User: What shape does this take?
Amino acid sequence: MSSATPAVVWFRDDLRLADNPALHAAAASGAPVLCVYVFDEESRGVRPLGGASRWWLHHSLAALDASLRAIGGRLDILRGAGAETIAALARGARRVDWTRRYGAAEIAIDTEAKSALKELGVEAASHNGQLLREPWELRTGSGSFYRVFTPFWRAANALPAPAPPSRAPKSVAAADWPAGAPNRIALDDLGLLPTRPDWASGLRAAWTPGEEGARARLKAFVGGELPGYAKGRDQLAEEATSRLSPHLRFGEISPRQIVAAARKAAHAGANADKFLTEIGWREFCYHLLYHSPDLATRNFQPRFDALPWRSDQAGFDAWKRGRTGYPVVDAGMRELWATGTMHNRARMVCASFLTKHLLIDWREGERWFWDTLCDADPANNPAQWQWVAGSGADAAPYFRVFNPVVQGGKFDPDGAYARLWAPELAKLDNKHIHAPWTAPPRALADAGVRLGETYPRPIVDHATARARALAAFATTTGEDDP
Ligand SMILES: Cc1cc2nc3c(=O)[nH]c(=O)nc-3n(C[C@H](O)[C@H](O)[C@H](O)COP(=O)(O)OP(=O)(O)OC[C@H]3O[C@@H](n4cnc5c(N)ncnc54)[C@H](O)[C@@H]3O)c2cc1C
Assistant: This one.
């Protein structure tokens, strides 16, 4: 093996330099390094990225290339089936390193890559860079996987602390592109950015994809909002949460880095427990995805298979466009469309509205979120949709039907969130902001609101829709309305 024989780092959902064990292993081998990203929509079972995620990926790959170039490397981009492409590239390489993924299709690709590389006599090593614990590390007393969050998180916390995060390598020697390797393509050739129309201006204003943006966000959060997180995280108009989710989704920052920073702040007196518990929820969702690979397509609890979901295109369209007539739901859905994210409390209310008030299958909503969220995550998104619908692990009981008016009053008491995203209601008084149809004609006229014209009337009546949902859910469970 000549000293120019390269080591390959196969980047996927770990688009960062720091605390990246795959990059470290390759850099430490002393070989020149090929850093590659294979855009794979061909392998069997791969779920194509949604529009917002494609936008994010474009910028994240550009940022990773810039970071690599700053330390002597570069990012090469390929398109094709992952295992095949890596094997074709790595013929003659010294080793290939990658960070593990946990979806069924991705595990199958990696298994295929490993055996193809073995046949070629190339060392292949996978690493954990995306989770605090591997999903198979935690088992219940009876040896099965966890279906309930609290004992899962207790068991996770009882294990020795994960290794501290490692720093980015100081330098990487870029290898020459091997003769006969598959053709590289330019980032722009992936066509990840929207063009006609370019709907991404709100995303550009809201986010800075890439490792540097992730690091800055973590620093700002830990030095700013963290102490008030537990109290403020449910308030819709407050920017009290970390906004790290898309950075985590694309691996621009690792959970170990986040935990280390939060723990450091906790030593200095901040209470980080609630925030760390949410990182725990992410771990739990990945635990579920690994052990229940069709999480996005099948009810986790099969008894929900018989649920008589409704087909209601008009209702679904109104929900997607933020025109349900319930301001808190409409604000959430419009925030999502404009910025590629939605506050967690609004996600719960909007998902509950779709699955309970409209009785539309949670999979329809999950797909819409998959397309529109920058943080659309293969584990968190389906697990949380199922949690809200009631069909998931450790789910909210099916009879919990969020009342959007009550939720608005509690978590957006002065209507700032509703007013921001439904500006046609901006002048409506606080008393009626979450239920404009209850406002006296005079109040509506003073606020310039004409129901059914400037703002929709509610597309369903809460009490009627709630009763319909309970009846539908009860037929499948055999339980009565509690
Ligand atoms: C219907 C529905 C769909 C969702 N889809 C996604 C998704 O596709 N991707 C995604 O990352 N989160 C999803 N969530 C979870 C949650 O809403 C987001 O993680 C959170 O709003 C992101 O904001 P943040 O980074 O400021 O979170 P913070 O409150 O600061 O939390 C820190 C991190 O913990 C994790 N986290 C927080 N809450 C949850 C949760 N309930 N479940 C799992 N992980 C959590 C995220 O990685 C988050 O970045 C969904 C929730 C619901 C109800």
About this structure: The first strand starts at residue 7 and ends at 11. The mean pLDDT is 96. Residues 233, 241-245, 248-249, 278-279, 281-282, 285, 344, 347-348, 351, 369, 373, 375-377, 380-381, 384-385, 388 surround flavin-adenine dinucleotide (CB under 6 Å).
